[in-house]
Structures are given as structure tokens and as C-alpha cells.
Amino acid sequence: MIWHIAKRELYDNLNNLRFVLAIMLLIGLMITNAIVYLREHPTRVQQYRSSATESLEVLKARTDLYDIALNGPGDLYKQPASLRFCADGGESFLSEFVDGGYWMWGYGDGFRDFWLLNYPTSNPNLLNIRPDVTKVDWVFIFGYVLSLLALLFTFDSVSGERERGTLRLMLANSIPRHTVLFGKFLGALISLCIPTVIAILINLLVISTSSAVHLNNEAWKRLGVIIAVALVYIFLFLALGLLVSARVRRSSVSLVILLLTWVIFVVFVPGTVASITSGLSSPISSDELRKRQNQLHNEILEAYIDRTGGDETPERTLGRSEYIMKQMEQQERLRREHLDQQITQVQQARAVTRVSPAAILQHSLEAFAGTGFARHLQFLENVQRYAREYREFVENTDRSDPESLHLIGVPEGMSKKPVSPEAIPKFEDTLSLGKDFNTAAIDLLLLTLFVIVLLSAAYLAFVRVEV
Amino acid sequence: MLLTLIRRELLDNLMTFRFAAAILIMLLLVVANTAVLIKDYERRLEAYNTAVQKHRQDLLETKTYSAVGLTAYRPPNPLSIFNVGLDKRLGNTLRVSYLYVPTLWDAWKHGANNAYLNIFASIDIVFIFQGILSLLALVFAYDALAGERERGTLRLVLTHPVRRGHILFAKYISAMLCLLIPLLMCFLLVLIMLTTSASVFLGTDDFFRIGGVIFTSFVYLSLFYLIGMLISAATRRTGTALMLAMFAWGFLVLVYPNMILTAIETDPHTDTETSVYNQIKQIWEEFDRERKQFLANDPVPGEDWDFGLWGDDGYTFWGGTDDSSKLLYYESTGFHFETLKEESEPQVPHAQNYHRFFGLQVTNTADRTWIVRKPALEMIYVQPAKKEQMLLKFSPVGLYDSATEAWTGTDLSGLQDFFMAGQRYQQAVVDYFLDNKIFESRQWFVAAKGEIDWNMLPQFSFQRSDIGTNAKRALPDLFLLLILNLILFAIIFLIFVKSEV
Question: Can you give the pTM of this predicted structure?
């Protein structure tokens, strides 16, 4: 029986103008998405490869341990996501690399720390005089366009029939109400899925037939998850549409309510809520960070001069090691603190935007596509782990040389043995699907909850409805 | 008769649910966002004031001319609350140096805190109106004609001796009056919030500019109402009309602007970039050759440009910038001392002589590079941006956005005003240096007993362009919006007059 009703709804929809418009709109957007992706992605990959190899070459050329410790492994690059067409994730606002450097002590000769991580923030806006744009990715197509279409497909499914009087006719038969409701739900779902699936297929066809991009097995798995999440997201809006349609007498009123709800929760809530929440905390500014770093540096330098004083002697030079290590540790802590504050501010804002289903969709799609803020945090984590490994490597190599004085940070106090380039750890930016599930778990949970609540509300509303 | 019709329509509209819901939602959004925007403005203003003060202090502590780092700061625009445009985005700190002519691309940001927050969309008042006002207008319009036709009341009205044009006109006027209420209420609330904030100062001109924004919003609203009415006149059933109206909204507001900007491919101009950059580099190399030649030929043997001067608390610098993406290249060399050693004194006239040559040549070089750099920057950065802006104008949203940006002065031209002022200031400083023979003075590199009177130096001042200029920039788009209104009204009239009831 459900199937019967669904079929009827489907035929109704297929003959409708909205179906044709939806199919055109979705296909147009998906083709744009694919073409732009094919145009941009190969260059991105090429750029990543060439800069990553460049960094590696420089690292390989070094053989002196002190040199390795001082100059570090060069810039560390973030691997571009091959599923960027699913979620752009504001990647252009997140830096694509992490660099490092050392402090000059500005006192005596060759008095330096060694390599420390730096967390550059990319600010492409400074040069960008172009109009603002939301990239047309799957997040945009599903989050904005498809959700709007879902409302347009359901707003009159109950109220429209009531207006025309056909609802009374149908319920006069011996059909349970929930069957009617689920039949309608199914009908709307299928009629919305047809254009979506066609559009997605065209999109993937364009992308996978191009020789410039190759999607591997894991990428296809991820795509499957992404489409599943999008499906749940559509459930949500269909349920919302049915709920309002069942509660309201006139279909035009139901559309107005739905549209206003949609505009608020999809378009305005994420931005508004994010800016309100981010205003609550204020991490130290980068100017302030610089001031503190200089202050710290001067303190340690003064302590060093006070302790040792006088002229440069070999013993004194070796005594630097202690101060260099101290400085490095504390500077690193300062930078980490600053970064953590910034991250916390963004995390808070992102957490609160979860009141909007569109933001939830964005977060989870970003997590599975390997873009966006969560991905950036994973990259930073990878980099930090690598930096630890790298430093340990320096220490261990030094320790294994019996001739060395084991005074790290001073050229004279460190191992002089040439280091083989193969032994130096290499940076690898990895991603794992399991980890991404963890990141997206809360979003997926929330989305499912939203759907369950709205579906049961729609059910209750429809069961109690007076015909 | 017209009045009766208007009254009827007005009452019809005012009593509806959609009207109440619309007002409530708009007010809620506007209040929440204005509060955030004002707070943000206050923070930026504070950062600006601190930066200016600190710069002033640093300047007063500077002892020599060559050590001076003049900087122009851009104050935040209070009207950015209405349309933020490029105001928050572009650099607000511009270094003014005799080495190059400063531009928008050389500026950076002071007080920029968490750059990660850029991943969130920023919402301003115009953005809210763009989305919701247009939606509202369509919701009001879709059943204006189709609904009456469906209910049969249109036939009833037309049995009276009323002209069809009058009916259309009455519907239009009354709906616009209704829509004006939420619009004006929102602006009123924003203005109240603005005037109660202690740090926002609005001049007379600003109120006119806000007036311009309100008028543009009104015209934009009317355009969407007419789009809705056109759909309503052309369709038989309200359901179809509503559907079409929503698709039109989705396409014009949501899909078209983003799709066109994503799809457009901009030529990176790599060839121009490298060739111009090399040209600029060559000009500097030429300067370097001449300088070396001068140093070789002057009475002091050798090519040392520090003339073996020695002193306390000195600082010697040689360096520069090479950034091919911004087409910026320069070399800076120099030195300055707090006090000079006795034995260096005989060298001073030679150093002064060199600096006379250096000053003339270096400013000349800066001017020459600017001649090459200016058109190249225009071509690489400004033209693509203008092209995108133009493409956006095929949607009313683009027209509305660029017109309001022009009123508030947060568009590209409005911001360029600041950078032009920076360029004029740079010219004034260079002229001051040349006219007063600062380059060849002893105080260029050695601090003297009598401290430098920094107040003599030209001061940087920047005033936002006057309302006339804003109006001039906004009028073309506003005019286009008005014309679109007229055309749509004419089409609706034609369709309606010919339609069968």
C-alpha cells in the first residue's frame, strides 16, 4: 500500500514543473562543479608535489647534524584532498603549509637556537579584491539547493491535498494514516533522488573520465559515505516539509513558514552564530605574541650574560646549550599556546553553529572529503608529531656518537659524524577514514537525531490532523 | 477609485501571517547581527587608535631621517556595518617609503587577530536584506494576480469601471507600502543602535549615505516584487506561480552569483607578471650600477657606501623586497648612528655628497618603477575583479550589492581613495625630503643635538570621499535597477491588459 501511494506521488511530481526545473538546476550546478574541479585540481597537486620534493631535496643535501638541527626539514606541506569538489572547506583561508625557523640571538657569533615550528596563517584576503563567493561544491549543492528543493517538493503534500479535498477521499479508504504519510515521504524522496542521482552521476562521470584526476579506492568509499550523509540530510528537510504541511491549513502559508525557517537556519544562522560566539573569547593577537616572544628572548639572553659574563671562551660557548634549549622549549610553548587559543575560539564557534543542519552537513562532508578546519587540525597534529620525531632523531644520533659532547644547540658540542640522508625521518601527511568518522561522529549523531525528531513530529502531526 | 483599491490591498496584506512573520524574523536577524557588527567595529577602531598612537610615539623617538618608518593607517569605516565590502578584508597599514609608491597590494593588517575565523561567512545588513527582502517581496507578489484570478475576485473587480492599469498600480503601491514597513523598521533599529554606541560617529554625509542605502534597498525590493508579479501575471495557478517564484529566487540570489564566480576562469597573466617584474628589477639594477659608478668616481677611494663611518648605537641595513606576485622589488641600503666617532668626522661631507646623489636617484628610480608597475597591477588584479563584478550584475543581487557598497564607500574605489591618499602622502614626503635637502643633511644618518622637529614633516590625513562621489559611483547601478523596474512594470502591464479573466 505504501508503495502504491508513493507511486502516485511520484507520478504527480514527475509531471510537475518543479521536477524539470530541479533537474536542470542540479545538473547545471554539478557540471560546473566538475569542470572547475578538473581545471583547478591538477595544478594544485602539481604545486604540492613540486614544493614537497623541493623541501625533501634540501633536507637530503644536509649531512651535518648541527645543520640538520638548526635548519630543520624545510616547509611541510599539506596534501591536497582529491575530494575537494565535495567540500571546499574554506581551504583558501587555511594555510597549506607549516614552516619553521630559528632565532638569532643577536649576540655573539653564530648564536642561534634551532628549528622551531611556526604556524603561518594564510590571509589570501589581503590581495583579493574580487567579490565574495561561496564555492559551488557538493556542500553548497546539497546544503542550500537540495534542501530548498526538498521543501518545495513537500510543502503542499498534505496541505495541498486537504485544500483540494483529495485527502478526505483517500482517508475514507481503509488505509492507516502512517502508511499515507510514509508513502508521501517515500514518493517525495524518490522524486527528489532521481534528479540528484542523475546530477551526481554526471558529475562523477565527468571527473572520473578525465585523465587528469585519479580517484582511488578509498576516495570512492568516502564518496559513498558522503552520499549517505547527504541522503540523511534530505530526510531531514522532507520531514520538516511534511511536518509543516500537516500542521498548516493552507499550502501557501506552509511554504512561507518553511521558506523563512530555511533561510534562517541554512543561510543566516551559521554566520551569525559563529560571529556571536567567536566574539566571546579573544585570543592574544599576533602582535602581542611577538611582543611576548621578544620579551622572553631578552630575559633568557640577559640571564645568559649575567651568568657567564666576560669574554668569549670555549667553555662559555659550550655553556650556551642550556640556554638555547630553555629558550626553545619556552618559545615553543608560547607558540603552541597562541595556536591553541585560536583553535579553541574557532572550535567553539563551530560547535555552536551545529544548531543549523546546513552547518552539520558542512562539517561532516568536510570531514569525509578531507578538507576544512578539522582536516587542518589533523595536518597540524601530523606536523607536530613529525617535529617531535625529528628532534628525537637529532638527539638519538648525537647520543650514539661517543665523540660528541652531547651539548645540543652548539656546533662544537654536537656530533660531527656525517648523517646519511636516508636516516632522517621524512614528513608524511596521512589521513585515515576511521579518524574522520570520529571527527564527524557528533555531527552524524546530531543529524540523525534531528531527522528522528522531525519525522516523529511529522507523524504525530499527521495522525492528529483533522481532515 | 485608485485609493479604494489601494486601501483594500493594504488591509489584505497587513493582516496576513506572512507579514507578521517577516517583520519578526527580519528584526531578529538585524538586531543580532548589528550588535555583533558594532562590537567588531569598535574592536577595529580601538586597534586603529592604538596603532596610530604607537606610530606617533615611535616617530618622536626616531633620531635620524633614514631611520624613520612612516606609516599610514586606515581607519575602519563605520558604514561597513551596512555593507562590509572590502573594508575588513584589505590591508589597513601602509608603509610610506621613498623606495616605492605604495599601493593596496603592499598594505598589511594591524590588529588582525585570529585569521582562522575567516572560514566563517561574515554577515552584514545588506546581506540580510539581499536574502530575506527579495524572498519577502516574492512571497507578497506571487498571488497578487494569479490568486485573484483563481478566487474569481479579479473578474468581480473588473466588472466595475476600473482601468486595468489602475488595478496593477494599486496592487504595486499597496504591496510596496507594506514591504516598506519592515524595511524602515530595520533601518530605524540599526540607526538607534548605531547612535547609542559610544564609538560610532556619524556625520551629516553619513546619514545621506545611509539614505542612499535605504533608497537602493527599496528599489531592489520593488524589483523583486515586480519579478513576482510578472510570474503571477503569466501563470494561471497560484501553486505554479509560487513554485516559479521560488526557483527564480533560488537562481538569482543563490545559484547564479556563486556559480558564475566559481565557473569563471581568470587568466593568471604569468607572462606579464614576469616581464614587468624583470623590468622593475632592471631599473633597480641600473640604479645600482649608477650608484657604484658614483661611488667609484667620488674622491673617496673604493666603492664602500658606508664610507668607513663608525659610531655608537649604529645600525647598518641593506636588504630589500622581492615579491614577484605583487610586482614589488626594491633594494634599501643605509646606516644611521646615535653619535659619531671623532675620527669619522672628515668622512661626513663625502657621505652627505653621496646621499645627495642617492636621494635624487632613488626617488627617481621609484617613480620609474611606478610607471611600469601601475598598469601591470591594474591588468593583473583590478581588471579580473571588475570583470567578475560586471558578470554579477546580471543578477539584481549583484547590482544591489555594488550600489550599496558604493554608497557606504566600501567598494574598491572607496578603498582606493585611501591608497591614493597614501600615494599623495608619499609624494609629499619625498618632495619635502628633496625640497628641504634632507637626503644630504647630516641628520639623514647621524643624530644631532637639536632633535628633529617631526611636526614639520607632512602629516597623513585621509577623509572618506564626499557624498557626491559616493553618489556618482552608486548611480549607474541604481539607475540600472530603476530601469529594470520600469521594463518589468511595462511587461506586466502588457501581459495583464491582454490577459483573459
Answer: 0.89
